[in-house]
Amino acid sequence: MQGLPFDKMAHPTFKSYQTTEDLIFLQECHGSETQRTLLEGTLDADWKIGAYVERPDNEQGHNKGGTTIMLQRKNLNVTMSRNQGPSKNDDFLWVTVGDTEIGCIYLRPDNRAKDNLDFGRTFRNFEDHIHLRTAIPEARILVIGDHNVRTGSLQTEGFSPRQHEDDVVRGRGKNYINVLREGRLGILNGAIGTDKIAGGKTTRHGTKTHTTIDYALASASILDAHDIADFEVFPYDHTLSDHCAIRVTLAASFLTAPLEDPNPAPTAPI
Predict the structure, then answer these.
(1) Model confidence over 147-157: pLDDT tens digits?
(2) Residue 217 pairs with which residues in a beta bridge?
(3) Which of 7, 54, 114, 158 is the one with CA 20 to 30 A from 13?
């Protein structure tokens, strides 16, 4: 879910996600550290903040861009990846689930001169991160997030073809596809499951246009193992965000791990 302020965390739709999902990634969450601390207190008892990265103000005076947060059920064995990438980037969050790395990546927009600078820098980081993590052909990689590129129905060769309501392709969208090709990552939007049947739904509802800029990507090793059960774009809810939530349903059993007993039985000394 992109662009959800902290004060919307009590929204009924967001609360409902805690009954249906196992991991929730939030991007561009604007609010103070105090509000983030309070957020954990509003979560259901079996949920917690698992990891987050925050973009600080910098010396160029760029606006603070919010926080990327991963919420998780407490019984999931999810850890923040030790290697957060070849270059520090506060818009990228990598976590590890079993033998799979999941990246929640935000690529800044390009609609202003400052953002063009930011986008170029962030896109180069994106390339570096993808190349690093896909250097091993069998690497299991899943990437989600607001990538602020329009790709129409373009797809990496060897992956299921896409259909999409947003058929516009921008120059940066072509560059984006080239990075995915080099990293052997395919786009799930409009290619599998519920979203394919729906014709590839748009993910952002602006005042003038509806576009697809929020994506889910998967490596061939994950798709070949049939570990993606479904991909879906949730219905637009203007009271929650100008972006639709997207859902990746994993068929992999490694997502769950038993809860640790907080009061383990004592063991006899050896």
Answers:
(1) 999 999 999 99
(2) 143, 187
(3) 54
What is the C-alpha R_g of the chain? 19
Q: Mapping DSSP to helix (H, G, I), strand (E, B) and coil, where does residue 183 land?
A: helix
CA distances from 49 to 26, 102, 206, 269 (A): 11, 16, 30, 36
Q: How high is the pLDDT of residue 66?
A: 65
- Taking the alpha carbons of 210, 213, 214, 216 in that order, is the dihedral positive or negative? positive
pTM, full prediction? 0.86
Q: Which pLDDT value is given to residue 110?
A: 67
Residues of the chain with pLDDT under 70: 2-7, 30-32, 55-66, 82-90, 110-119, 252-270
Contact 109, 189 (CB under 8 A): no
Contacts of 81-84 with CB under 8 Å at 24 or more apart are 83/132, 84/53
Angle between the N-to-C axes of helices 113-133 and 171-183, in degrees from 0 to 180, rounded to the nearest 10: 10
